[in-house]
Design brief:
Helix content is about 20%, strand content about 25%. It is α+β, with helices and mostly antiparallel strands and about 180 residues long. The structure holds adenosine monophosphate.
């Protein structure tokens, strides 16, 4: 049975049923604020997707590889029409990454734009192509802090509540309004 959070949201477009998804955005090359804002606009323009909430912009410590620029991160929630599968959503996000001329030379290294699906309500996937809930979500302050800002009681599809308890890296340095230039 769909719970209250999943039902009754109405529809992302038209009268179809939809479910809530959480998307994390990150950038640490060039005009990172513009990349993150541009990504939100590009996601908002996707068919079958309706933006619910967008976090502030977070400057965060680079994880794993320290000698790179700080990241700008944000998290957004969207309603995804049931006609759009989780893999279709992933592929659309990957097309947006490509549009932003994603540059990446090393694993965990700098990138113009990185989009991750953190969670889709009621869905679990454990393939190499798509793991949701995102396996590292609760380790990353750059995911946990913005997600708790917009959804303070969020529970992942595997039943784990989002909290700072397990956070290990990617810590927040500063927070700016979505529209401000810091
Ligand atoms: P990265 O370069 O770190 O962004 O990783 C991209 C790869 O992770 C792609 O091959 C995706 O298919 C895969 N992937 C697995 N789970 C997810 C997820 N929840 N969100 C985004 N990409 C994912």
């Amino acid at each position: 049975m769909a719970d209250k959070d999943q039902a009754g949201h109405g529809s992302a477009a038209g009268n179809q049923a939809s479910r809530l998804a959480v998307i994390a955005i990150g950038s640490n090359i060039g005009d990172t604020l513009s990349y993150v804002r541009g990504a939100v606009a590009a996601i908002a323009a996707l068919p079958g997707i309706s933006v619910q909430k967008v976090s502030s912009l977070y400057q965060t410590e680079p994880a794993h590889v320290k000698d790179q620029d700080v990241f700008t991160n944000a998290v957004m929630t969207v309603l995804v029409d049931d006609s759009v599968s989780a893999l279709e959503l992933l592929h659309r996000l990957q097309a947006i990454e490509t549009d932003f001329h994603r540059v990446r030379h090393e694993h965990w290294g700098p990138r113009t734009l990185d989009l991750d699906i953190i969670d889709i309500a009621g869905e679990i996937s454990d393939t190499e192509e798509l793991r949701i809930p995102h396996p590292y979500a609760l380790l990353r302050d750059f995911v946990v802090s913005p997600l708790l800002e917009i959804e303070p009681d969020y529970v992942l599809a595997d039943g784990k509540p989002v909290s700072h308890e397990a956070v290990e890296y990617g810590f927040v340095i500063s927070v700016n309004d979505f529209g401000s230039n810091g």
